[in-house]
Amino acid sequence: MTSTTAAPAPAxxxxxxxxxxxxxxxxxxxVRLGGDLPPETVAAIRAALLEHKVVFFRGQDHxxxxxxxxxxxxxxxxxxxxxxxxxxxxxxLPIDSDYGGRANQWHTDVTFVPAYPAFSILRAVVxxxxxxxxxxxxxxxxxxxxxAPLRALADGLRAVHTNDYDYAALRPNAAPEQLVHYRxxxxxxxxxxxxxxxxxxxxTGERVLLLGNFAQRIAGLTGADSRALVNLFQSxxxxxxxxxxxxWQVGDVAIWDxxxxxxxxxxxxxxxxxxxxxVTIDGDVxxxxxxxxxxxxxxxxxxxxxFGPASGATTTAVES
Length: 320
Ligand SMILES: [Fe+2]
What we know:
Elements: E1 3-4, E2 16-19, E3 26-29, H1 39-52, E4 54-57, H2 65-72, E5 78-79, E6 93-96, E7 119-126, E8 134-138, H3 139-144, H4 148-155, E9 158-162, H5 167-170, H6 176-186, E10 192-196, E11 198-200, E12 207-209, E13 215-218, H7 223-237, E14 243-246, E15 253-257, E16 261-265, E17 275-281, E18 295-298
Parallel strand pairs: 3-4
Antiparallel strand pairs: 1-2, 2-3, 4-15, 5-17, 6-17, 7-15, 7-17, 8-14, 8-16, 9-10, 9-13, 10-18, 11-12
Fe (ii) ion binds near residues 103 and 107.
């Protein structure tokens, strides 16, 4: 395992960053997460996050809903999910096996709205005795490792993302109550957003592939051509060499750059309970390599959730 030092400034005498995957993923040690971290420590965590795309912290058992959110505010503005109610009446989103919360599809969080989250901060509360790992993939290296003709092809494409995809077809073994829950809650509002397939990352300047399971079709193509191209680019994202896999322990925290990754929750812990809490940080409207922003196609605006601003509500690119 290679050891690297967090940039740009020494955050503390004990903070270390150790890579756990070749293309993404690092463990940060020597930090007790909370709302009281000094600015230099927050800067070091943010720098590691932008470089490694997903960072992991062990032993953060002291965190609860409130301190999880207090820490999140150090990275930006927490935002509520556009349709799913929170666990605490504020921002903490429940990722629970009891609610069908098994995201075993490769995705980037909430890409069915324009300004989808910049960061997600996931905290493990109950972990099954086996299985239930999460995988992340680096969408920047997926792009940069494409052959030049495929990069040029991707640069010119745009894709429509929606939360109204065929959940029942994707989860043929889902219980009827899970399907009802999905239809009544997750798609309470049906969103459609057109994104560039290649986004220029607003902080690093890297080009990243923007697809995942909310991507319904490539704009302007037939269904068959669209599926072929989505599968082509998505296969480069999902290559094992382009991923990292995390085996959760209670008290772990993972933070990922949601603008440069996809992730996948492995559904292999049978009926054992798995509970995590996620707080997401507001993002901005993506732009493609041609400078064109993402556009909300429907509805006209992102509705306000019960508490706080909605993820994606900061859009300035609403199509009239
Ligand atoms: Fe997710």
